[in-house]
Amino acid sequence: MRLAILAFAAGILALQMRAELPAPAWLGAAGACGCLLLFAARRGSWLAIPGAVLIGFAWAGAWAGLRLADELPSANEGRDAEIVGVVAGLPQRFENGVRFDFDVERAPFAVPAQISLAWYRGWRPQEDDEFHPLPTIRAGERWQLTVRLKRPHGNMNPHGFDYEAWLFERGIRATGYVRKSDGNRRLEALVAEPGYLVERWRQTRRGHFQRALGEAPYAGVLVALAIGDQRAIEPALWQVFARTGVTHLLSVSGLHVTMIAGLAAWLAGWGWRRSSWLMLRLPAQKAAAAIGFLAALGYCLLSGFAVPAQRTLYMLAVVALALWTGRTTAVSRVLALALLLVLLLDPWAVLAAGFWLSFGAVGLLFYVGAGRLGDGHWLRTWSGAQWAVTLGMVPALLALFQQFSLVSPFANAIAIPVVSLLVTPLALLGALPFGEPLLWLAHWLTEWLMRLLHWLSASDWAVWQQQAPPAQVVPA
Question: Could you tell me the sign of the dihedral formed by the alpha carbons of 177, 180, 181, 185, in that order?
Fold first, then answer.
């Protein structure tokens, strides 16, 4: 099964690397052949491998075809359109306005189902030195807006950020801006659908952080750790994180999700064992597994459900299900099932650097945890795992970013326990009502940590840079 899942992932990657999408007939033939090969290999034959590759190729192609079909016709670019829809995600303020994703419900002509809009403040007609204010935009609101749209466009610089591909992965097939119109108005304060309710909840918590911390220099770091809004972190800080190799800690990583689930499971098990009535109805171990999974699910929803969080949540789901059914599941099988679920729901995940880094890091930890570094003191085990992951990820970091932080082992040895065991729990508890003192404590710890990271990143030798290695060398 594990080899078949890896083959399925290889088929998806092969499709994403193509410059053009194959014709639907070819994709259908590939899927049909793959299913036949899997059926023929139901007793363990090697035919399962090419069958899984073909199914992965066809699966990714089918998703890509559906997304490509949801496009803005060229004839409709630059035309004003009065549309009705719902604010779908966290609005992001910038210097001259606000940007937000918008789910289109009604339009006068063909437009994509999801678009990205900017609403600029604009100049006052009488006072040229002032901007007119914008209405407050909240996730989950239904609006009627007059907009002007265009197809996504981005620069094609080698090894640079591919803005067009990033929009495509997120399902945004047009961008535009709100035009000045008397018809622009809010139609409904909140559309009570699960996705919109979660986004409104996230925006409410972000507002809580902003009110509590004000202009504190690292408030954006706490917002990113608690609700997954990485755009709250200033660009200069990302440079410090990249030079010290701790970027993975400043997003909602699998380590954070596992920590929250483990803490919730421990507290649930501790409390459950103190009630004979509860113990007679459900074993404490099963109750702890269920509550730990629900805590992880809640944190993933609050944080925006990024790929590292998805991977960890699916792994926790497999472990909890195995515990409930009384089955023993190998860690490699858990990781493979998590990989399968991620790619079934998001075939474009293979294009994200975080996908490869997160699965690679977890795979190395599993390798180390299998006893290959030997038993011994917990400090030896911790340092061995740290060095194994640090050195093992060098080829991937050079291939993806053409650089590697030489100070990252020391920086991570301090930052991992501080961020995972102290700052993140305090930030989550501080998101609750009356949690402002905990937010300030989390900010104080972050400020102390940032002083160290700034000092490490200032060294001329902090980063090793070189050209990307050949593709065939990376897996070797």
Answer: positive
